[in-house]
Fold this protein.
Amino acid sequence: MAVMDGKTLGVIGGMGPLATDVFYRMVIDNTKAERDQDHVNMIILNHSSMPDRTAAINSGDTKDVTEKLVRDAEFLEQSGACCIAIPCNTSHSLLPYIEEAISIPVINMIREAAAAAKDKCRGTGSKVGVMATDGTIRTGLYTGALRDIGLEPVIPSAANQKRIMRVIYEGVKAGKPVDPLDFEMPEAEFVNAGCECAILGCTELSAYRALAGLSDYFVDAMEVVARKAIVMCGKELR
């Protein structure tokens, strides 16, 4: 049953809470609005007790996470959402199960970010760096999506992947300062490899971008979804 007038965006959030807060702000900042009514209606389900997605993928047991994501999506659909955004890249490995359970669209963060990266590149065969959790890297979400559209994904070295995980888990998720070198060294690896851009494929990295003021070398997957959601909800982009 709809609880708001007009189109409403459903958000499965809390993965993590800061990233969800940044996503909400991205929707606001990217909407052309002069009054409250010009903004997007949203139902934000901040499910911070959701089990860790990377840990579930690494363990091979994703049943609990999948069931919770499906229940959240069903709740948002029943509450009147016209579409759903999930500000968590890693959870998109379970997207087919969610889509099967509901009749409203879920914005595919991986495909949308890959397409946005292509727009920044010179053409087929261009290299694109991927910054993401171990779980997202392991599932091949971005490598597959980029190859499908003719781009060459570049994954960080093992040492730099550990640095990215420190930024995500020991920095942003823990609410502690990030060592800038933990971000700058993977970035330098991408530049040296000839990547024309790099995807921030974890919403904690999107939150870090907001804190650190990163350059437009990076494609922010979460902001891409925010802009897509605005359009799907019938509002104007800023």
Q: What stands out?
A: The domain at 110-221 is CATH 3.40.50.1860 (Rossmann fold).
